[in-house]
Amino acid sequence: MAEQNLSVRSVAPSGNWDATAESYAGHIGSGNRVLLFALMVLAVGLGYAVVAAPLPLGAQVLFGIVCLVIAILLNRIEGRLVSIGLMAFSTLLSARYIYWRLTESLDYSDPRYNWVDIGFAYGLIAAELYAFTVLLLGYLQTLWPLQRPPVPMPRDLAIWPTVDVMIPTLNEPLAVVRPTIIAAMDMDWPRDRMRVMVLDDGARPEMQALCEELGALYIRRPNNQHAKAGNVNHGLEYSSAEYVAIFDCDHVPTRSFLQISMGWFLKDSQLSMLQTPHHFFSPDPFERNLGTFRSIPNEGELFYGLLQDGNDLWNATFFCGSCAVLRRSALDQIGGIAVETVTEDAHTSLRLQRKGWNTAYINLPQAAGRATESLAAHIRQRVRWARGMSQIFRIDNPLLGPGLSIAQRLCYLNSMLYFFFGLPRIVFLTAPLAFLLFDAQIIIASALVFAAYALPHLIHSQMTHSRLQGPFRYSFWAEVYETILCVYIVLPTFLALISPKLGKFNVTAKGGNRDRSFFDRKIALPYIILLLLNLGGFGLGLWRLFTNFGDDADSLVLNLVWTSYNVVILGVCTAVAWEQREIRRAVRVSAELPARVRLPDGTEISARTLDLSEGGTMLRLPRAVSLPLGSRIQVALIPEFDLVWMDADVTRSSNEILAMKFNALSLPQERQLIYAIFGRADAWLHWAERRPPDKVGTSFGNLFRLGLTGAKKIFSPSRN
């Protein structure tokens, strides 16, 4: 192949990729293996000594305090090695708690304990063991995020490879798909080496006409077998390029996407797939309904901001179905996109890695799409992901079969196990009610002893997660995201384990709007029931505490605190179910870009955009201008790139602020607008720069406020 003869200069990352992979992914010389094994045995021995050491209550409390002080001091020091140290510290304290739970808090030999006590007790310990397993696998997965940089393309365009850009679509509005096609057609790549293919599973004449207008190749197939995976595989029959780039029909690429992505394929002849982040320019249901858009990380940022970077160290990057490039010869070797599960993307990357191919991740958003537009759609999408990962776990388990390293198997295992959080999350939401409502003894220990072991585990894991995940997920928000989904994913994940073929693929709708606010009672019903149960348990616990203050007072206080936390989380979930009115069809994107305005009298003024949409823009002028509403003006966006004037009508004129609505656009004008909004290489790179860092106390305070808001809306809906 031509790329094997290239000499491509590597951009030095924050640590060279080859050196990082060699140092941290297990390529260790044989001369050091004996020493490494000895050190591991010593570490395990010392760890077991710490985990299993018996201590009286006072000594355990002192141990916890000392550990907390050490962790706080370490947390003030920057550096990845310190982060690894905190992970190890957290692991030891969590293991000590689990060891104590298994060996000292489950003695139900006394005949006074009945099956209710035992059932609740073993349900809770099972949930805790699940959480501990996911904690350990998560620490491994994010041990050292690779932060792979782009590799520059060679100067000689003649040796750049050919790429077919595929945009699968089903029934999405043309207004959603059109910007994606335009942006894909305008990517910076030699025209004779790139082709845009629209794969229409909706067989729509209007989509074919759109492709003819824009110059894209239109492909339809005679059936919809295997949904998106089958659609892409059908498209591969018409593709002859060396590489395939895939975009969901609402994921609009930047002009630089291919130049950012393709260099690694020329550097690594065994690279089969390179994934970039899924970035969303519109708010998801949490951000919209809670009013947290761009001020709090959304649900997907943890995966694309940290976990995929962590996977990349272990050569375990997942294909995510969009915003990715795949090598055609690698796809051919595995028979195309996997069709056996509804998460065809992750399954495809697993099959590629089983064949010895490499995968990669560049954490630079080079495309942006629309987030799910309702809580119900969001839940349906996540249920599909959960069911698909359960299907893979059942039919192509990463722990079994050939071709994967131990680290790859564990990374896949963690991502699949995660989606089984439904039942453990329900257990955590209801466990304190076992004591408050039924007086079930779920832990055979005093509340003080339990707290002495549990608090170090909880505090250190929270502190470590805040340090590792803070830029991508604020403290306690994981509980909100999991609580929203837990009731809905329990049955699909377990059914997929029993019978992987049950269920069908569902497409996430995009491009809708709501002209009124409303409470989604059907979706919120499980949260309301759990909230009422926890409020009832809290009330009964308070009554027991103040009317029969006795030996179980400490246990009552502990369970009341636990229940209070659950009430806050469930209150936030009910607040998310209040779907907010959204009538603007074109999403406005905040962006400060150069512009020029031509006033009705012909005067031209330089300006800066404040926001942009496909329907209009708002500008800040250097001086006050007063124009009547409806005045016809012209605006040029990013004129230094291409001076394209667009007709617009004034919708607001106030001092230096000028807002306008675009009139009908020609194709050259539309291309310039799409470039201004979506196509710039740095369009999404600084999206979260102004976001404050995670602070545990502040994060919980925000959740507490949102939880109260959600609870108030249930009990006083007339105020909304």
From TrEMBL:
Pfam family, one: Glycos_transf_2
GO biological process: cellulose biosynthetic process; UDP-alpha-D-glucose metabolic process
E.C. code: 2.4.1.12
Residue span, PilZ domain: 583-678
Major localization class: membrane
Involved pathway(s): Glycan metabolism; bacterial cellulose biosynthesis
Membrane-related topology note: Multi-pass membrane protein
Job description of the protein: Catalytic subunit of cellulose synthase. It polymerizes uridine 5'-diphosphate glucose to cellulose.
PANTHER family in UniProt: CELLULOSE SYNTHASE CATALYTIC SUBUNIT A [UDP-FORMING]
Family assignment from sequence similarity: Belongs to the glycosyltransferase 2 family.
Annotated protein name in UniProt: Cellulose synthase catalytic subunit [UDP-forming]
